[in-house]
Design brief:
The protein has about 300 residues and is of the alpha+beta class. It is built from 2 helices and 12 strands; from the N terminus they run H-H-E-E-E-E-E-E-E-E-E-E-E-E.
Length: about 300
Amino acid sequence: MPIGTLDRTPPPFFRQGASALSRLMLFAAMALFLMVADTRFKLTGPMRMTIASVLYPLQWVVIKPVQWAGEGLDHVQSLRRAQQDAQSYHEQLRLQSPRVQQFEQLALENERLRQLLELRARPQTAGLAAQVLYDAADPYTHKVIIDKGLLQGVSPGSPVIDEAGVLGQVTRVYPSTSEVTLVIDADQAIPVLNTRTGVRAVAFGNPELHGGGLELRYMGANADVQAGDLLTTSGIDGVFPPGLPVARVDKVERRIELPFALIDCIPQARVNGTMQVLVLPAQLADQPPRPQEPAKAGKKDHGKGAPR
C-alpha cells in the first residue's frame, strides 16, 4: 500500500482539547462572574427557589428516619424524665406560689398606672409555630432551616423566638422552608435594653464567645453594667417587639488603655439545640406614621433679580 494513502490523524483516544490551565482560568472566570452577578443583580434567586422546592421532598425523606429514630429514643427515656420533672415542678410551684400572688397585685397596679398615664397597651402579635429541620451547611455562619416558608406567610426580617428568648431573624425565605440567622452570628445585631438601668445599647453576635454568645459594643468604660443584668429587646428598630429576653451579661472587663468596656453576654435562647420556634411578624407595620415636619420658612434671596 502506498504510504501517501495512510491516514495520519491521531485516533480519537489521543486527541486533546484545551489545556488544563485554560480550562481552570475559564471556569474561575465563570465562577467569579456568577458570584458578582448574584451579589449585584440577584440572578440566581429564582434558581435557588426552584432547586429548594425540588429538593424539599428529598430532604424530607432523608430527615424523617433520623427524626423518627430520635423520637423513639426519647420515648424510651421519657418516663423517668417525666417523673423527675414532675417532682421538680411541684417543688417550684410550692416556692413560687407567694410570688404569683404578688404578681397579681403588681399587674393590677400596673394596669391602673397605664390608665392614669394613658399609655397604650403593648399590641398583641400572633406567631407562627415552626420546627427546626437542620443547621445550615455553611460552617462560617450560624443559621438554621425551619419548615415554614412563603406558603405559610413567613417574610424576610421576621423575628424568631423560642420558649426562653430571641433566637434570631429570618434572612431568606423559600416556598416551604426559611433560613434563620441566629443571634450569635457575627452579622447579627439587636437593639437591647438593660432592664436594671433602662440604658439602651446594641448587642452584636460573637460566635467565638463561649461557643456562641453576644457582646455589647461601644459602651463607655464607666457604663453602669454588671454581671447578671438582663437584656431585652428595646423595640426601637421596629422589627423586634419590645420586652423579649435576649441575653444576660456574663462578664464586664474594663481596661485603662481602652475607651470602651468589654462586655460578654450569654443568649437566653437555646441557640445550640432548640427544635420548636415561633416566628413573629415584623413590627414595622404596627409603628405609628412619622409626624410630618413643619414647612421651613423660605430663605430671603439677597441676590440680583430676586422675584418680588
